[in-house]
Design brief:
heterodimer; A: about 350 residues; mainly alpha; two-stranded antiparallel sheet; 14 helices; B: mainly alpha
């Protein structure tokens, strides 16, 4: 029941973006906006496992990068995108399953999880970086080391390799996938699975005592997050028809965390807002060419942790409450306060 | 036989390097439960401090063994006062904030020194073992690692500071009740950890050269070592460094350095799956 409002809002916003923006914006601006949308999907994947599962994965870029590499290699081998698209989601999900098994069934605590996932990402970076040379190829695809993989076949209409999707249409596709990811995760959170997940974020021991195997739930959430990140990576490889080891870089891993933290942990809307805001900020400041982008990102990260740990969405929500209490009818507001108390940690709301 | 000796020396070198890069982290993490993701950048700054000092005409041994640890130790003190102390008990937030610090430092150093590798010529010559040439500096690194471990052992077990620090480590509020100021101990401990990271950076600079992003290579290895080692600072670091350094170096001998790193990680993940508390969580329990 409670899900209808956000899902409806998401549908409305997504449809508006698809219908209106291509009319007004030039292809270049639209392409730039497409990256924002693609990265929002990545932010959403971390927002889901961190904000609702309590799993702070520092290496979400690993799944993103694996998705883009898996797509690139599969698409070059298959010559069309339908099968490659599936591979790009399945490979990172399976990788998340294997890695998550060791992490969750080893009962490794949250902190170590962050360190291990980060290490895995850095090692994937080194590994892909050192594969220049002709002997490193999978099927017909050369991995290319630090040069990356150029001229990847881009998305075509499923089952019909001759119909390549144009940049304008690709924007629509990406917004569609973002909407699908958002709605899918929102429905998942409303289900029994989502409730158990949030419960174990709050108190893992109690959930275990109630007879749930929290390890399996965490692992499942981790795998879903990996799959969604893989989808994002697949779209990213499509966007420039190119992928390179930078998808596994420290900056990429840091960015995902910063997006979610800036937007607000514990929401699904926050990661999307944070992603758009930070990307806009970095491209704006980067264009000015005064400060090093890493310096800026670091300062943003420290600032938000120390001063605004709940992110932008909490600020917006607070402003929203102040505005409604100012302009809304006093008695209605008063009544609402008593009938629906806010969840203590801002948990499932949003 | 000669070849075997060379392999042994290289393995010892790998172990000593791991000890050096992870001991500062082990102290900060083991005593304060603070995860310092900027540890790699502390090492990086140590390298830059040594190189800058020796360019200014300071004797290279003084630059490596004194300037680096002191500079980074002071820097660590500032960091603890400005950022870390607001986040005690919030492990995740500490991790996030220090990661922000790490990015900030990478950006800062890139702005100052540019994005190229700066080198420092290795101060010692080489020696011959049979038909092989081995850099004497390798032996020096092993000696420094032994000296650091020995010095810390004495510091933690034979001095008042060591006693108090171990007390705070076991129960901060109880020590506070006994009249110790945990905030001061934390501050000193963090600076000590930073100084050791700086020492590692200075000592390793002649071998690897330094770039602003070099910390990334160290932070992963040092964390894996500290996690693998478990609760005891010295015993854990030594045990995990020995295990991972050996695996890393032997795989490197058989294939490439990158595969060596992968081997290290695989062994570490399997080890943590079997011993979630680290090596010293199961064995050597209760040592320093």
């Amino acid at each position: 029941m409670k899900n209808y409002l956000p899902i409806g809002a998401c549908l409305a916003a997504g449809l508006a973006a698809i219908l209106i923006l291509p009319l007004f914006l030039e292809t270049f601006t639209l392409m730039e906006l497409t990256v924002y949308v693609i990265m929002s999907i990545l932010a959403l994947s971390l927002g889901f496992i961190w904000g609702y599962g309590g799993i702070l994965c520092f290496g979400q870029a690993a799944f993103f990068g694996l998705g883009s590499y898996a797509y690139a290699i599969a698409a070059i081998n298959f010559g069309e995108s339908t099968g490659a698209f599936a591979v790009a989601i399945v490979v990172p999900a399976l990788f998340a399953l294997a890695l998550g098994y060791f992490i969750f069934f080893g009962r490794i605590s949250d902190v170590y999880l962050g360190v291990i996932t980060l290490t895995v990402t850095l090692i994937l970076f080194n590994l892909t970086n050192s594969t220049s040379g002709d002997q490193y190829r999978i099927g017909t695809a050369a991995i290319g080391g630090f040069n990356g993989i150029p001229s990847i076949p881009t998305l075509n209409v499923p089952g019909s390799p001759d119909h390549i999707i144009s940049p304008d249409a690709f924007f629509v596709v990406c917004v569609g996938f973002l909407m699908a990811a958002y709605i899918g995760l929102r429905l998942l959170l409303g289900s029994h699975f989502g409730r158990v997940l949030v419960a174990l974020r709050e108190n893992e021991q109690r959930v275990d005592l109630l007879g749930y195997d929290s390890r399996k739930y965490k692992l499942a959430a981790f795998v879903i997050g990996g799959g969604v990140a893989g989808l994002s990576g697949c779209l990213f490889a499509n966007w420039g028809a190119f992928t390179s080891p930078t998808v596994f870089s420290l900056t990429q891993s840091a960015l995902v965390i910063i997006w979610v933290l800036v937007g607000g942990v514990g929401t699904l809307l926050g990661p999307i807002i944070g992603c758009f805001f930070v990307q806009w900020l970095t491209s704006y400041i980067g264009g000015l060419d005064i400060v090093n982008p890493n310096l800026l990102l670091g300062a943003v990260l420290i600032g938000f942790v120390l001063l605004l740990p709940k992110g932008l969405v909490s600020v917006l929500a607070k402003w929203g409450t102040i505005l409604t209490s100012h302009f809304g009818s006093k008695s209605a507001n008063h009544g609402r306060k008593h009938s629906s108390p806010q969840p203590a940690s801002g948990g499932v709301a949003q | 036989m000669d070849y075997f000796a060379v392999v042994c020396l290289e393995v010892l070198n790998a172990v000593a390097t791991l000890v050096l890069v992870s001991i500062g982290l082990a102290i900060v993490f083991g005593m304060m439960k603070v995860i310092n993701l900027a540890h790699g950048e502390f090492i990086m700054i140590g390298g830059y401090a040594a190189i800058t000092a020796s360019k200014l005409g300071v004797n290279i041994w003084i630059a490596i063994l004194l300037v680096s640890p002191i500079a980074v130790g002071l820097f660590g003190f500032v960091v603890e006062r400005c950022i870390v102390r607001y986040l005690y008990g919030r492990m995740m937030d500490t991790m996030l904030a220090t990661w922000g610090l790490s990015l900030l430092l990478i950006g800062l150093i890139t702005s100052i020194y540019g994005n190229t590798t700066i080198g420092l010529s290795s101060p010692l010559g080489s020696m011959t073992i049979g038909a092989y040439q081995v850099s004497l500096y390798t032996v020096f690194i092993i000696a420094v690692a032994i000296a650091v471990l020995g010095g810390l052992y004495l510091l933690l077990t034979r001095t008042d500071f060591g006693l108090v620090a171990r007390g705070v480590m076991q129960n901060a509020s109880m020590s506070a009740a006994l009249g110790i100021n945990p905030a001061r101990i934390y501050s000193v401990t963090f600076s000590l950890g930073a100084a050791l990271a700086g020492l590692a950076g200075g000592v390793l600079a002649p071998i690897t050269g330094v770039v602003p992003t070099i910390g990334v290579a160290y932070v992963a290895k040092s964390f894996i070592t500290v996690i693998g080692g478990g609760a005891s600072i010295l015993t854990g670091t030594l045990a995990a460094s020995s295990a991972f350094g050996t695996v890393n170096q032997l795989t490197t001998f058989l294939s490439t350095p990158v595969i060596g790193e992968v081997g290290l990680l695989l062994v570490a993940i399997v080890l943590v799956r079997m011993l979630p508390q680290g090596i010293t969580g199961r064995f050597f329990r209760g040592r320093v």
